[in-house]
Structure to design on (443 residues):
């Protein structure tokens, strides 16, 4: 009988990672990190695709065996931070690719009691992958590679990703990107991050993917717009005050300059105020050029091979983005600072008597025709047409074969800002476009 052939180190580590004893699993995770650093430092080192699949299978069952919420969170953080142990970008991308492939393969076998811990692990891995991109200075080529990897492994029709993985990824993507890059990313960079979702939303034949992209990406941008504009207004006012302050006064008066990088989309520094105070408090939000987002989404939705249901759904979002570009908010619960110039006009409007609902319905009429695509003319021309006609803009045209008898689309109360407020929003749009590039962070 010949000598026993030792198992490869990856299989040995995977077996220990999936062990029954927590002490054994913890030691295996620490040993794995050292092994990754040592192997990727060598010139001829690195891992193959199959080797990392074995490693991730061990890590998957390491998380599977872990009980207690706090210990699960600590383990998830330790596992997700393994990406920083890889010494090359190629090895990091292979590590991420095999993670998402492992989640796709094992997802259907996860019972409902263990779903939350793997939802958390997906969020943490996405967060650390964006932090790795941040360490590289948000280099455009690396960002494109990461987006290509994510869309290929999760959203592409050939990825075989379960609906649960797709839905959770689309739900957390903008949130995690805001946490990592809201203080540095410009509007142009943020547009690059959502461009793949524009293409997928226009071409997908999966109605659930269309709904999740529309709700998790584009409608989230619309909902966060008041907070983003509030941040820009604060920064614009701070910049104006700083320009009006002389050098001598600047030495005596405490500096009101926004924190470093705030001109690239971050909220002002609120470290002195406790987080979570007030109902309108919100974390960092990304800045977008809403007209550019609307144009990019329209270019994807207006293609001839775009399914009609996709086009109809995306056109509704495009109208909302165009309204934001003109300074019209779709919601009434705009933060106080973002609409300080609109408060007086709102109070005057509340004192007037409102028209009865029947009168509004009669204005719509039963035979009102609607446009089949959004009006992409300039904001000034559209505003002039609305004010001249005295009626609201017509809605989208019903598609042939659609359900009859729906009448005009449901109306949305609009906020008509005064000229001063519109100029403020315009200044904010200009500020968004002329930002300086942030200093590169250390590698």
């Amino acid at each position: 009988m010949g000598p026993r052939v030792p198992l490869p180190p990856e299989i040995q580590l995977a077996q220990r990672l999936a062990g029954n004893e927590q002490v054994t699993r913890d030691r295996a995770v620490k040993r794995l990190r050292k092994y990754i650093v040592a192997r990727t430092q060598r010139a001829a080192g690195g891992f193959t695709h199959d080797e990392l699949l074995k490693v991730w299978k061990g890590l998957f069952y390491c998380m599977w065996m872990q009980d207690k919420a706090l210990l699960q969170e600590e383990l998830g953080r330790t596992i997700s931070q393994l990406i920083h142990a890889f010494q090359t970008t190629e090895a990091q991308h292979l590590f991420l690719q095999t993670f998402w492939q492992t989640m796709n393969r094992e997802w259907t076998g996860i019972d409902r009691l263990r779903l939350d811990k793997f939802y958390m692990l997906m969020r943490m891995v996405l967060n650390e992958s964006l932090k790795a991109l941040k360490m590289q200075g948000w280099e455009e080529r690396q960002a494109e590679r990461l987006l290509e990897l994510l869309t290929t492994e999760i959203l592409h029709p050939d990825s075989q990703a379960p609906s649960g993985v797709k839905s959770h990824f689309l739900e957390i993507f903008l949130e995690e990107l805001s946490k990592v890059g809201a203080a540095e990313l410009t509007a142009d960079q943020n547009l690059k991050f959502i461009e793949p979702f524009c293409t997928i939303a226009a071409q997908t034949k999966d109605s659930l993917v269309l709904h999740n992209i529309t709700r998790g990406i584009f409608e989230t941008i619309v909902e966060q717009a008041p907070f983003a504009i509030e941040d820009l207004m604060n920064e614009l006012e701070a910049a104006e005050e700083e320009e009006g302050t002389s050098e001598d006064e600047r030495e005596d008066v405490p500096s009101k300059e926004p924190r470093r990088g705030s001109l690239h989309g971050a909220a002002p520094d609120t470290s002195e105020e406790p987080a979570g105070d007030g109902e309108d408090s919100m974390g960092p939000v990304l800045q977008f050029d809403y007209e550019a987002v609307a144009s990019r989404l329209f270019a994807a939705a207006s293609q001839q091979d775009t399914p009609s249901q996709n086009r109809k759904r995306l056109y509704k979002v495009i109208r909302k983005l165009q309204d934001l570009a003109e300074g019209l908010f779709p919601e009434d619960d705009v933060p106080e600072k973002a609409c300080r110039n609109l408060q007086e006009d709102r109070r005057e409007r509340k004192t007037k008597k409102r028209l009865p609902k029947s009168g509004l319905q009669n204005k719509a009429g039963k035979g009102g025709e609607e446009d089949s695509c959004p009006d992409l003319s300039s904001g000034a021309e559209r505003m002039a047409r609305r004010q001249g006609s005295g009626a609201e803009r017509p809605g989208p045209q019903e598609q042939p074969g659609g359900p009859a008898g729906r009448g005009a689309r449901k109306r949305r109360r609009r906020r008509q800002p005064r000229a001063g407020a519109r100029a403020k929003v315009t200044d904010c749009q200009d500020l968004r476009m002329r930002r300086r590039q942030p200093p590169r962070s250390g590698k």
Residues 320 and 330 are 7 Å apart (CA to CA). The first helix runs from residue 9 to 17. The radius of gyration is 26 Å. DSSP finds 17 helices and no strands in the chain.
